[in-house]
Amino acid sequence: MAALQPVRGTHDLIGEDARRHAHIIGIFKAVAQRYGFQEISTPIFEFSEVFHRTLGETSDVVSKETYTFTDRGGESITLRPEMTAGIARAFISGGLAKDLPLKLYGWGPMFRYERPQKGRLRQFHQVDVELLGVAEPQADIEVLSLGHDFLSDLGLIDRVELHLNTLGDPESRQAYRTALVDYFSGFLDKLSKDSKRRLDRNPMRILDSKDEGDKVIVAGAPRMFDYLNEASRAFFDKVKAGLDTLGIAYVLDERLVRGLDYYSHTAWEFVTTDLGAQGTVLGGGRYDGLIPLMGGPQTPGIGFAAGIERLGMMIETPAVPARAIAIVPIGEAAEVPALRIAHRLRQAGFVVEQGYRGNVGKRLERASKNGARVALLIGEEELAAGVVKRRDLDTREELALPLDGLEEALGAYR
């Protein structure tokens, strides 16, 4: 029988990968809390309608990528491909409108059935921020600033570039949509199959087509800025002014779009050239029409998400945890006292490893192999004298330390 293998597009988090994952989440959590956001954790699966309604039945994610199945109760269930829709569902089902504004952050696994490639898996992990209930551009500035600070604290801000665009308000967006349909309809015989499919439902998605033939056509497409009404221009000007005030650099990117109609105003991506063609490491936007679309009250929202695996490919390897103190009992009579000493040191904040079997030599060898800094040798003679023998596993130097006040004597290894 062949050895069991992980499912294609999944991976195990252990060792250095686990340290990178934990480091990114730790930085993210600290930054989000500095901004006054509170943690939320939603289920990894929802009724399929939650995602099919919000992402659009004809979107690539729903039609090609979601993990959707019928459970034993006959319900259609979908593993979450992103967090925003689940958070919006929690807002509606939990009756949280009374608590607005809501500033939420979370993280966890997402699932998309797509071709695995560098930094893009079928089970992947994201961090996520959502701010609900604030229609003013100050919310856009704050969420953008949070994303900037997160990447800065990860040491990545000099390796990314902020691309910024506006989708305008619904009136501006509809005017632009009409102009795009008129323009692209003139090239119907030359558009790619995907772009033809998108023309009626979400023509803005054609603007970010990767098809080379589409790119030639897109180069002459109408500009969003030419269809912005006065209110949309004023909103975007305030967002840009806020970023300028904070010293957050950006480039205007008219081709940065969101295809679904519930998006409006600000859209952005932090992009890098370090990861090849898949350059986005953090992306976000305003979605004032999402919660009403799901049957909830009119509630503005804005947020971003970032892939943990992709960020992990860019950061330095996090420092290894503190090197452990190895407890090595000498003889059976020392086993119980050694257990007590190990427990006492752990309660005092030390990293302690205990060997489970083998003679003293083998336990010391295993402790060195596992990276322990020092070993405490505990035998009947040492216990009778009220001491333990500390052996430095790098220098082999030995020193007797009193049991009374052992925590203080080992302070350098805490």
From TrEMBL:
Residues 29-329 form the Aminoacyl-transfer RNA synthetases class-II family profile domain. SUPFAM superfamilies: Class II aaRS ABD-related, Class II aaRS and biotin synthetases. It comes from the Bacteria. GO terms for biological process: histidyl-tRNA aminoacylation. Its EC number is 6.1.1.21. Keywords: Aminoacyl-tRNA synthetase, ATP-binding, Cytoplasm, Ligase, Nucleotide-binding, Protein biosynthesis. One of its GO terms (molecular function) is ATP binding. It catalyses: tRNA(His) + L-histidine + ATP = L-histidyl-tRNA(His) + AMP + diphosphate + H(+). It is found in: Cytoplasm. GO terms for cellular component: cytoplasm. It is an enzyme of class 6 (ligase). L-histidine binds at E82, M83, T84, R112, Q126, E130, R258, Y262, Y263. InterPro entries: aa-tRNA-synth_II (IPR006195), aa-tRNA-synth_II/BPL/LPL (IPR045864), Anticodon-bd (IPR004154), Anticodon-bd_dom_sf (IPR036621), His-tRNA-ligase (IPR015807), HisRS-like_core (IPR041715), HisRS/HisZ (IPR004516), HisRS_anticodon (IPR033656). The keyword Nucleotide-binding applies. The keyword Hydrolase does not apply. Its main location: cytoplasm. Belongs to the class-II aminoacyl-tRNA synthetase family. Homodimer. NCBIfam families: hisS. This is Histidine--tRNA ligase. It comes from Oleomonas cavernae. The lineage of its organism: Bacteria, Pseudomonadati, Pseudomonadota, Alphaproteobacteria, Acetobacterales.
